Amino acid sequence: MRFQLIICAVFGLFLAFRITINDAVIFKFTNAVCESYNQSWFVFHNCRLKAVSRSKVFFNMNGTILHPANDIKIHMRIFKKANGYKPWLFDVTCDACLHLRKRNTPFLSIVYGLFKPYTNINHTCPYVGPQIITDFYLRPELLRLPFPTGDYMLSMQWIFDKKLQFDTNISFTYVEDLIKSK
Ligand SMILES: *[C@@H]1O[C@H](CO)[C@@H](O)[C@H](O)[C@H]1NC(C)=O
Ligand SMILES: *[C@@H]1O[C@H](CO)[C@@H](O)[C@H](O)[C@H]1NC(C)=O
Ligand SMILES: *[C@@H]1O[C@H](CO)[C@@H](O)[C@H](O)[C@H]1NC(C)=O
Ligand SMILES: *[C@@H]1O[C@H](CO)[C@@H](O)[C@H](O)[C@H]1NC(C)=O
């Protein structure tokens, strides 16, 4: 626990340095996999991508939390594709309830900042009932991370009461558009 907190803090500091990125990039979803491991606590009704243009792909999710969740941790990892997905830079477990109260985990702030306008997952704990994400797409201007061009997967494993309940694994591509940026 202590170790995890230190890791969160160290990566947090690292990410707190804002990096200016070129907005001539393609930053879009390529795949979404959602799976519940405990249908009596979390059910997915929908978890789907919809391409609306070459550079814009919507992510829609609809799930239900059947009993209030007061203790929510998220195991977040990024993988980068190179002959299959390999662990890449981030592997942190953060306390989502604490974060929503105190905004103390910069990595989570970045991810959350990207999807907050598209969801009702925007309040403090407990969480119960419908959890909806509507037409969420990636906007490079909100990304405060430097990314090398490549294909990535953000794996988020949701842990309620210290037990894994469901996964949301979202893949995306990040391509610097060299022609436009000249
Ligand atoms: C999500 O990704 C993690 C890490 O690769 C993997 O262990 C897990 O099985 C994946 N979950 C699903 C539902 O594919
Ligand atoms: C599954 O969810 C129920 C609540 O609906 C909970 O009591 C139980 O502990 C959960 N099981 C696991 C293995 O997480
Ligand atoms: C989410 O799914 C449930 C169950 O299928 C449905 O009743 C509800 O209308 C859906 N909500 C949205 C916003 O799509
Ligand atoms: C949370 O999202 C709901 C639905 O989009 C919205 O009505 C509400 O104002 C939002 N609350 C906050 C604190 O942003």
UniProtKB/TrEMBL annotation:
SMART domains: DM8. It comes from the Eukaryota. This is Uncharacterized protein. It comes from Drosophila pseudoobscura pseudoobscura (Fruit fly).
